[in-house]
Amino acid sequence: MNTEISSAQIARFHAHDNPDAIAARMLADGVVIVRAMLDRATLDAFNAEIDGYFAGEDDVARSYMNGTVTQFFGPQTRHLAGLAGKSAVFRRDVLCHPVLMAQCERILRPHCATYQLNFADVMDRWPGAAQQIFHRDDGIWPYLPPLGFPLEFATMIALGPFTAERGATLIVPGSHRWEKDRVPQPHEIAVAEMEPGDAAFYLGSTLHAGGENTTDQRRRGMHLSYCLGWLRTEDNNYLTAPIDLVRTLPRDQQAILGYALHDGIEVNGGFLGAVDWRNPLDLMAEGRL
Ligand SMILES: O=C(O)CCC(=O)C(=O)O
Ligand SMILES: [Fe+2]
């Protein structure tokens, strides 16, 4: 995309800024950028941990992927999905990051009893990666009619430099309020240029696309999203983070991985995910599960 002609801007905050202000702006614009979400030490530890997974990746190794999914991401994108089960740094420093949880509380919590991790995937977009099609991440639940409230809070965390040339994510402020088929014009598209450790926060209903990578460098980002606790998640967290691992985790991590009871009875919501009519987290704490 020719970024010269794009005048759209994304509001920028710092990770220490007031979460109410961040949430209000995200609900208004559909997107914000939060600077310095992850510090250098965390980035280095995480990148070192996942480098090994990517070292042996080639086209043959990726042939297991569904063709439509490969087309959606483009053949130049390497993935590491299911981070909750694969990365200790992710679990410790990202999964329940207070800045992310503060947004989940404000964006998702009003519409569910408990929210949960939806998806956690590193996307290494290699040189030559083409621009992705514009899409809404909450399009994964097409059976639902428009409900008028957010189903999903998504982030793209820059694990390395996010420049326009490297294929920084293209995001369309305000598009969460658009009719479904409206096509963004160049001047409506913002480029989420970020330093390593910065994050773009957006709603599941906001239009966006991975940008074209015209450089000879990879663009590595972590795509992470959370959704209402009564939805089916994109990553199957019960299998990517199986119970033998989950038993060893702190309660907040167990909960965000979807093992918590969704007890919405007081607000006329569903009593979901029980085991023997009890909260699985209590059963785990008692050594019964
Ligand atoms: O890689 C990007 O910048 C965006 C990826 C994306 O939007 C997605 O996977 O849903
Ligand atoms: Fe997306």
UniProtKB/TrEMBL annotation:
<dbReference type="Pfam" id="PF05721">
    <property type="entry name" value="PhyH"/>
</dbReference>
<dbReference type="InterPro" id="IPR008775">
    <property type="entry name" value="Phytyl_CoA_dOase-like"/>
</dbReference>
<keyword id="KW-0223">Dioxygenase</keyword>
<dbReference type="GO" id="GO:0005506">
    <property type="term" value="F:iron ion binding"/>
</dbReference>
<protein>
    <submittedName>
        <fullName>Putative phytanoyl-CoA dioxygenase</fullName>
    </submittedName>
</protein>
<dbReference type="GO" id="GO:0016706">
    <property type="term" value="F:2-oxoglutarate-dependent dioxygenase activity"/>
</dbReference>
<keyword id="KW-0560">Oxidoreductase</keyword>
